[in-house]
Request: fold
Amino acid sequence: MSSAFDGLSRLQIEKIYDLLDVHIYKFNKGDAIFPTIKGGNIVGIISYGSASISYIEYNGNEIVLENLNKDSVFGSNISLISVDNCEITAKENTEVLLIDYNKLINPRNLKYPYFNIFFNNLFDIINTKFKETNERVRILEKKQIRDKLLEYFEIEYKKVLNRNINLPFALKDLADYISVNRSAMFRELKHLKEEGFIDINGKRITLQYK
Amino acid sequence: MSSAFDGLSRLQIEKIYDLLDVHIYKFNKGDAIFPTIKGGNIVGIISYGSASISYIEYNGNEIVLENLNKDSVFGSNISLISVDNCEITAKENTEVLLIDYNKLINPRNLKYPYFNIFFNNLFDIINTKFKETNERVRILEKKQIRDKLLEYFEIEYKKVLNRNINLPFALKDLADYISVNRSAMFRELKHLKEEGFIDINGKRITLQYK
DNA sequence: ATATAAAAGTTGCACTTGCAACTTTTGTTG
DNA sequence: CAACAAAAGTTGCAAGTGCAACTTTTATAT
Reply:
């Protein structure tokens, strides 16, 4: 996980705070972060703590869109996650940096080398985020659980070029990620195993067909 | 559909061509655009014509990820669509502008007001694209066709605040968009109609519950 | 106006999936 | 290490969905 301030000294980071008129807000567990940022074109960075972006469905269910941790960047105007119609809630003591979007894209700032590092870091985080989202879309587009799993394997395989895929999360989280029922996913994994396509050992999945 | 050159005069556009050393390539129907841009960090803009971004699945199926039309922007390093492992194919006579990504983010260019307009336009296109993708993820995450449809309606309703939703595409394209079988989607639309939730007249859907 | 193609609309059926209700295993905490 | 919680693993069943194979309607072209 890279940070928007990677490669910058303490002093340079403070200069950026000044340059962009960064506002620092602290929230307690359960606090809503959104009233402070909604409306304005503002970019948020979590400096410590964690929060979740969620929204209420038409039927009243709360859907967690994303979890924000240290160094996460969010905001509706910086191509990260659609914050509109969402609530952002602190999950613990959390500090958030808020930056006016217009100051961020003010070209005058680009004459400062340390600002360019910061801006490129931000762009990089956005880029990574978007690539991840596109990967997930490829999986979600598949109609059947088997195809979603195979697409997931394919994407992970290309990243490491290794038949052994180590799940970065629990199996139940994989079910959430590919958006299918946990038991049904498990059943399908079992079938893939029985048919000799894969082998599973805890969080390690081996692709027998590669 | 906005263009990266919106708000710029012919002369200013030519200055941008010079500034960024824009390369202009022409392709015939069926030509692969990708060999020219792959590897390098390059941003593409379709100046006229159309193309499609597709990839070959593990089972040999070709999946069309996206259609590019006039003014579409693409490229793996500008947060648009993950072009890696994909093929870009011209669907007709097509002209593409290719820009070196590093020149695009060169801060020296930002001293030119016309470049800032261009850059902001690009950022805006990226932003819109990402919001659209996030919308789609919200729909694709739903497990049942009914929930996908209702989520789609919800999103469209919030955009226009009108019970009448005009589909911007054919019903079969809606099925592709929410990634379900066309007939199955139709059946579900019929059920929603029979249960009084919606009314359908061609491409106009009226939400009776709003 | 007629031919042709494309989209809309319909239906039956087999298969897939979500869901609930478990048991078993693994991990965590005082 | 006992107690508890969380995750993994299993199963039956009802409901949902994909798919194929249609018919009907609408759009497009000559």
Summary: The interface with chain A takes residues 57-58, 63, 65, 76-82, 85, 105, 107, 110-111, 116, 120, 123, 126-127, 130-131, 133-138, 140-143, 150-151, 154, 158, 179-181 of chain B (CB under 8 Å). Chain B has two domains: 10-132, 142-207.
